[in-house]
Give the backbone structure.
Amino acid sequence: MKMIDIWLDDERNPKDLNIIRDFGSKGTEYWVKNINEAELIILTNNINSISFDNDLGEGQEEGYILANWIEEKAFNKEIPKMNWKVHSRNPVAAKRIEQSMRNADRYWQK
């Protein structure tokens, strides 16, 4: 079964390697621009990894909201483990995402 790598970012296309190279994209990730789409993809596909941006545009929920959702799903054993990284340039939000995902990692190990 195919494993999907998610790139959560409203502006930076993971296939545009001239821009994305500094953000750690491989150029093969599935580009997701909002939390609702990301949740649906996570629930309906096999996810290998996710890379988080936080600031997803005015009026949109931020990336740390998805990290919190993943943490809850991991705690409840509702989704399988996935690899993750944060490419957000928002240092405060990046720490929030990292904390939620570290918690998720601990729940997946139990």
